[in-house]
User: Fold this.
Amino acid sequence: MTNPTRTKRCGGDVLCGIDNHFQLLLYISENHCQLETKTFFEYFLRIVNKTHDYAILENKKIVFLSRIRIFKSDEA
Assistant:
């Protein structure tokens, strides 16, 4: 879990530690952030998730291909 940070705002001190997408959306909705901010973060997090999933997929392809090469070199 992320260490919460204390920040100063007009209303006083706020203790905030955001770990994931759900907590971020909860924070946005509870603090009545503007719709544009919420839309931006949802869009940004979708891109991050797609990039992360693509990186995992590419990594699996590389591992799979290297295992095939090792297997073929053992046959020779």
